[in-house]
Write a structure and sequence with these properties.
This protein has 16 helices and 10 strands. The chain is of the alpha+beta class. α2 runs antiparallel to α8, α3 runs antiparallel to α4 and α11 packs across α12. It is elongated, with a radius of gyration of 24 Å.
Length: 390
């Protein structure tokens, strides 16, 4: 069977209730598909109107009544707030693989008044509540997905056409009380979460939802060696100096065992001065290789800027005290020293393989966001390359 693209649109309410992690976890682990792109949108009235006009389909297993509710929902909940003009946040996830559309839709599920078992995403996060007269009291679809490959194509082309003007790093989509100044921070869900189809990326995002912060950008990224060198560049000199004492102690013990005579303090310090920088450089190369999939020493100049083989998810979180809140949930670099309930304690295994990265200051967040180019429109490019002109 040929490869297909399938999308899932996470609704404004699901984002507001921080259900993104749980939704993503189910989609990755239960479909086995490759998450190849993700993009935040703040739909204009035009995008909401145009999308609402194409959602009703004779090929959709949901009855016409529910499809009509979805159409009205899109017009009401995807459009800018009529009172304030503020746009609402929407996330689009893009998957690729064999039979992708059917696999995604089976995990998403259908809406109906008798579905309460929690088997699908909509069973768990969606609502279709009626009164004694069979009138709808509350309706929330949680996510939207196409029923057929043909409709996935037409709707993805629609969203791709708006992906530059309505998508990217969202601005002024969240409301803050007077006197509160939000900041932004970068999070990278690291490659160790993508070794196989697992719910870990979504689970990590679910942990970050405890902060009460808002996701304003998302990108599936494959870091090049050049990007990794720049991103982690400030760490290099720290590694060259910080590890001297550890290297000196290990070298002393190894040499004493090998040669059978004691090594004094001065000689031990000299060993650290000699070997510490080299060991630090080696560790730095391992970090770059872990994030990009390529060792800098093994790269030709042409390969430095090519996308790496390792995948991560880059997110920008916004809110008051965003940097400190994210780092508190993440935990310290060494998972063995992280407190219970932190991300690195739950998902990390070593100082390098520690689940996620988070900026340590607002200034570093700006620097790192620029390196990773979180606002880059890879979503639109992938859709255009797969289907042709959109």
């Amino acid at each position: 069977m040929s490869q297909q693209l399938a999308y899932v649109i996470v609704t404004p309410y699901s984002l507001y209730k921080s259900r993104t992690g749980g939704i993503l976890s189910r989609l990755i682990s239960r479909t086995g598909l490759d998450l190849i792109a993700a993009r935040m949108f703040a739909p204009s009235a035009e995008l909401a109107q145009e999308y609402s006009e194409v959602v009703i389909s004779a090929n959709d297993p949901q009855d016409r009544r529910i499809q009509e509710h979805i159409r009205q929902y899109i017009l009401h909940d995807f459009s800018p707030d009529p009172k304030t003009g503020r746009r609402r946040r929407v996330m689009v996830l893009l998957f690729k693989g064999e039979d992708a559309v059917r696999k995604v839709r089976s995990v998403v599920g259908n809406l109906g008044p008798d579905r309460h078992v929690g088997e699908t995403i909509r069973d768990t996060y969606g609502d279709f509540i009626t009164d004694e007269n069979d009138q709808v009291r509350y309706f929330e679809p949680a996510v939207l997905a196409a029923p057929t490959p043909e409709e996935a194509e037409s709707k993805l082309k629609l969203w791709a056409r708006y992906s530059d003007v309505d998508g990217g790093v969202l601005e002024q989509v969240n409301d803050y009380p007077p006197g509160e100044t939000p900041e932004r921070t970068l999070v990278l869900i690291k490659p160790d979460n993508f070794r196989f189809a697992t719910g870990r990326p979504g689970n990590v995002i679910d942990f970050f939802s405890r902060t009460g912060l808002f996701i304003v950008a998302i990108k599936v990224h494959r870091m090049s060696v050049a990007e990794a060198l720049e991103f982690y560049g400030p760490v290099r000199e720290v590694l060259r100096t910080k590890l001297k004492d550890m290297v000196a102690g290990k070298a002393k013990a190894a040499l004493e065992k090998e040669f059978g005579f004691p090594i004094g303090a001065n000689e031990q310090q000299a060993l650290g001065d000699l070997l510490g920088p080299a060991f630090g450089d080696n560790q730095f190369e391992n970090i770059v290789s872990f994030m990009s999939g390529r060792a800098p020493s093994a790269c030709s100049p042409e390969e430095l800027n090519q996308p790496g083989s390792e995948k991560c998810i880059a997110l920008i979180y916004e809110g008051v005290g965003a940097v400190a809140k994210i780092r508190d949930v993440l935990g310290p670099t060494d998972p063995s020293k992280a407190p219970p309930g932190s991300i690195r304690r739950e998902f990390g295994s070593s100082v390098m393989v520690n689940a996620a990265h988070a900026s340590d200051s607002a200034d570093n967040a700006k620097r790192e966001i620029g390196i990773v180019r979180v606002g880059e429109n890879t979503f639109g490019k992938i859709v255009a390359d797969f289907y042709g002109k959109v």
